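Students often ask why we bother predicting the structure of a whole assembly rather than each chain alone. The short answer is interfaces. A chain on its own may look different once its partners are present, and contacts between molecules only exist in the joint model. In this exercise we take two input lines together and write out one structure for the complete complex. Read the inputs first and try to guess which parts will touch.
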Amino acid sequence: DQQVKQNSPSLSVQEGRISILNCDYTNSMFDYFLWYKKYPAEGPTFLISISSIKDKNEDGRFTVFLNKSAKHLSLHIVPSQPGDSAVYFCAARVTVSGTYKYIFGTGTRLKVLA
Amino acid sequence: ETGVTQSPTHLIKTRGQQVTLRCSSQSGHNTVSWYQQALGQGPQFIFQYYREEENGRGNFPPRFSGLQFPNYSSELNVNALELDDSALYLCASSLIGATIYGYTFGSGTRLTVV
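Now the answer. The structure tokens for the assembled complex follow.
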């Protein structure tokens, strides 16, 4: 039961252009969504989060959009840089028996071409 | 500020054996979570510890157990290893309730069961 889905395993974008990474979810009880970036041989690094009561959160070149009616969120990176090449994971938080549980997607590998 | 450190980085075990993985949390963090990341998959939540007690668990059997120590370091123990336990095991620390800042992940321990 994959509650958080990243349907694009990979994405290639030219340097300077916009990268859009997508994530779909099925559980309407998720109350927070997060994006992580992972380089090879390193652990995932937190990028940006958004509460389910918001529809947009921006931090520098990174913006996350949330469409609750469609159960869809996206991460926009503008402008894309070669250093952004990594695997990006979408994650969602749900409260189970009073404790938080995080569900991760399978990741999208972004390659920014110089 | 120290990050999350995990040991060992790589490990090979035989089916049926037991293994202990270790994690030192980031300074100031009071919660530690463990994740299993199989090849090509996103991290799967194993369990979380807060105040030295397990306060959340994913869909993993009881042979996966853990400890959190007063200094917030942690261990993940896996008994009766199976071939499917081969994966990258990630430790993540956080401040309870501080979801907007996300986890700080370690680089992981690569476990191979043969």
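Check your guess against this: The interface with chain A takes residues 4, 33, 35, 40-45, 48, 55-56, 58, 90, 92, 99-108 of chain B (CB under 8 Å).
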